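Design a sequence for this backbone.
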C-alpha cells in the first residue's frame, strides 16, 4: 500500500506515539521500513524548548508526525481552558519551529473537526474553516490547534517549509479513550453496552435524543490517509479525512446493540445535550487530492473496535483523569 521507496532510509519522528492516533499509526510506519523514533512523554517534555531542540537534533528526522497534544472531553475543556490553550499553542509552536530549524523535510499534524465554526453547514467543507467561531466550550483547545494552519502557511511562505495539516472526522477504533466521563460516543457506548451485556444489566442509558447525525471514521483509515498525505501532499490547504457518510446516534446504538447481542432496554436521557445536530464532512479533497476513500464500513469498524476492546479490557483506557498534567499528554 505505502510507497516503500519513499520511506527507505527516511528518519521519522512521531510525537504523541502512545496516544490514540499514534498507537494506530506506528504499525503502518513500521511496515514502511523507515527508521522510527517515537519517544514517550516521559522522555521529552514538548513544553520545554530546549528539550524539543535536543529531540530534533538527536532524532534528526526527515519527517515529523506531530500528534502530541493536550486533549480531553467537554468537562475537562470547561474546567481547564487555560491549560488546553497554553499547552497546545506552546507545544505546536515549539515543534514546528524547531522542526523547521532542524531541516525537517516534511511535517504532518492534525486538528480536530471542532476547529470548524460551530455554525458551519454540514457536510463541512474545508473552506469553511475561517467563517466563524468554534463551539465556545472547547474554543481555547480548538483555536490553539487551528493556529497550526496559519503557522504552516506562514512557514511555507517564508521558509519553504513543507508542513501539512489534516482534519480527521469523528474518529473511533482501538486505543481510544473509553472513560465514560469524557469518551466520545462510540467508545462510551461500546463500553456501556458491552458491560451491560456481560453483567446482565436490564437497561443502558444513552445521552440525548438519538437524532444528531455524525460522520464516523475508523482510525485505521485515517492513519492510511495520513501516510498517503505524507508521501504525496505538499500544500497549505487542509484536507478532511472522513467517510462522507452520515448516521444518526439512534442508528449507531442499534448497530452496537446488534453486535454485542444486548437484550436489555435502551433509555434515552434527554436531559443530556445532543450537541451539534448535523456534523458531516465533505471528502471531495480526500478523494481527489489524496486519491483515498475510507474503506472500513461502520459495521466492520464497530466489530473491530469491540473485538479489540474485549481482548484488551484490562489495559484499555477506562479511567482517563480529567486533571491535565503540566507535562503533555497524547491526543
Ligand atoms: P461530538 O458531539 O461530535 O463532539 O461527539 P460525541 O462523540 O461526544 O457525541 C456525539 C453524540 O452522541 C452527541 O449527540 C451525544 O449526545 C451522543 N451520545 C449519546 N450517548 C453518549 C455517551 O455516552 N457519550 C458521549 N460522548 N456521547 C453520547
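Sequence:
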Amino acid at each position: 500500500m505505502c510507497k516503500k521507496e519513499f520511506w527507505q532510509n527516511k528518519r521519522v519522528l512521531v510525537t504523541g506515539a502512545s496516544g490514540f492516533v499514534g498507537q494506530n499509526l506506528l504499525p503502518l510506519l513500521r511496515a514502511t521500513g523507515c527508521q522510527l523514533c517515537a519517544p514517550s512523554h516521559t522522555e521529552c517534555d514538548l513544553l520545554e524548548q530546549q528539550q524539543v531542540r535536543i529531540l530534533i537534533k538527536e532524532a534528526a528526522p526527515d519527517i515529523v508526525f506531530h500528534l502530541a497534544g493536550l486533549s480531553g472531553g467537554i468537562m475537562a475543556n470547561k474546567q481547564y481552558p487555560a491549560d488546553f490553550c497554553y499547552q497546545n499553542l506552546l507545544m505546536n509552536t515549539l515543534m514546528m519551529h524547531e522542526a523547521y530549524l532542524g531541516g525537517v523535510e516534511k511535517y504532518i499534524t492534525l486538528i480536530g473537526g471542532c476547529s470548524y465554526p460551530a455554525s458551519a453547514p454540514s457536510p463541512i467543507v474545508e473552506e469553511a474553516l475561517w467563517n466563524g467561531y468554534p463551539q465556545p466550550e472547547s474554543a481555547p483547545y480548538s483555536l490553539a490547534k487551528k493556529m497550526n494552519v496559519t503557522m504552516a502557511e506562514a512557514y511555507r511562505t517564508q521558509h519553504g517549509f513543507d508542513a501539512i495539516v489534516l482534519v480527521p472526522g469523528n474518529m473511533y477504533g482501538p486505543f481510544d479513550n473509553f472513560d465514560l466521563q469524557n469518551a466520545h460516543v462510540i467508545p462510551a457506548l461500546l463500553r456501556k453496552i458491552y458491560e451491560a451485556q456481560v453483567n446482565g444489566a436490564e437497561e443502558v442509558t444513552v445521552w440525548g435524543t438519538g437524532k444528531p447525525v455524525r460522520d464516523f471514521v475508523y482510525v485505521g483509515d485515517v492513519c492510511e490517509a495520513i501516510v498517503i498525505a505524507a508521501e504525496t501532499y505538499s500544500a497549505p490547504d487542509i484536507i478532511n479525512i472522513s467517510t462522507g457518510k452520515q448516521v444518526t446516534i439512534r442508528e449507531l446504538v442499534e448497530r452496537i446493540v446488534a453486535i454485542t447481542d444486548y437484550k436489555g432496554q435502551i433509555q434515552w436521557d434527554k436531559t443530556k445535550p445532543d450537541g451539534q445536530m448535523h456534523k458531516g464532512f465533505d471528502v471531495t479533497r480526500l478523494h481527489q487530492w489524496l486519491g483515498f476513500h475510507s474503506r472500513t464500513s461502520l459495521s466492520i469498524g464497530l466489530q473491530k473496535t469491540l473485538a479489540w476492546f474485549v481482548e484488551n479490557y484490562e489495559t484499555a483506557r477506562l479511567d482517563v483523569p480529567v486533571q491535565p498534567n503540566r507535562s503533555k499528554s497524547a491526543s
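The chain has eleven helices and 13 strands.
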